[in-house]
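REVIEWER CHECKLIST
Item 1: Sequence provided? yes
Item 2: Single chain? yes
Item 3: Sequence as submitted:
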Amino acid sequence: MKNKKLTTSAGAPISNNQRSLTSGNRGPVLLQDYQLIEKLAHQNRERIPERVVHAKGWGAQGTFTVTNDISKYTCAKIFSKVGKQTPMISRFSTVAGELGASDTERDVRGFSLKFYTEEGNWDLVGNNTPVFFIRDGYKFPDFIRTQKRHPKTNMRSPEAMWDFWSQTPESLHQITILMSDRGIPQTPMHMNGYGSHTFSFWNTKNERFWVKFHMKTMQGHKHYTNKEAAKITGETREKYQEELFGAIEKGTYPKWKMMIQVMPEKDAEKTSYNPFDLTKVWPHGDYPLIEVGEIELNKNPNNYFQYIENAAYSPSNVVPGIGFSPDKVLQARIFSYADAHRYRLGTHYEALPANAPHSEVNHYHKDGAMRFFDNSNENPDAYYEPNTKGGPIEDTSVAEPPLTINGDIRRYEENDTYGEYKQPGDLFRMFTTEQKERLFSNIAEAMQGVSMEIINKQIAHFDKADPEYGAGVRNALGIALETA
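Item 4: Structure as written out by the authors:
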């Protein structure tokens, strides 16, 4: 079948549908990339009214308590002293599952935290895995379509899923995690959370550090096998909600240790891997975990819809002392998450109880749908800025230090000498024999019904990570090497 020319919605031809427009090879992404903006904005409007992704979720309210002084890395007031407590709300979710999906499907879990700090809301919007399937946000709408229903059959399509993955080698690290024992946590309490992206800290000396966030479960890790999960799905589709809600009602409050990895700003120029690549982890031997604080979930909201379904998390919600990095997926999410909430919940979604900051709010966003409130310090004469009518003004003291960038503007192809296969291979080699056998079996089950052409493409990636990896999957599928 002859391919048609790819265009924008206005009919203009597209030269590259794989890479964002960046300044330099490592970014950051440019706002002038109208093709990226169109692609993400359209995706945010494809489904109503549930979330496009992470539709099925469970959450609770709680507190964050600082247990270690990290003020040498960041001036964010949430971390200003040991013992300080900050109220928060969490939401966990599956990525692909719809609102009525089973809680115990094999899927990545969202792990989102909103901290109501004195400087405004800080949202840490991550997953239960430290990496993801893609390294460029331009690919996100396409990836999510492979996880949703086929337009003709209206069923999930393993063919589409493995077709995309087999042509996207960067996905192998996340595939290995998803198909391992970690792929089906027993409850939200028995899994880790990760910011996944590289973020930045800066301190009172305007020194910048790159940072990774880790939330380590204090309940221990527990996972289901495919067989166990299928049995539970036949009994209940609400297992996570039952477990999380029930634990808090009984006073058994779930807890996580927040840890960070910290990289001096200039180290990013020296690492053999791109530290802003969402498909890579930082070796703990080079950048060890540093304790920050403790998260405790200790309250079930009185109204699930009001506080969990209406909770709107976005990486764009940061506070002074916490910032971004050139991570291309993060840069896309900064726009797309807030835009999704404006579409799903309305123009003033951040005034809803779940999202309303506990700090003072002063801005010039007026009117529009859902204008159900008065702005703080309402002043009818101060409806523009600058003004001489006593309206809110900027505070230069909270400005972020400059971020140095370099390079020409273009859609860069990844030139990663570190490779796609080292970290997935290293992870595979850490598994026990029993864990490897379950990995092979899980992959074989997930490949049922997939065409041999795509299976062979994918197994070639397993081979490159580790020959034993590819051989194990072939054996589980009953495929001879000569056939492949």
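Item 5: Key structural point noted by reviewer: The chain has two domains: 45-357, 418-484.
Item 6: Recommendation: ____
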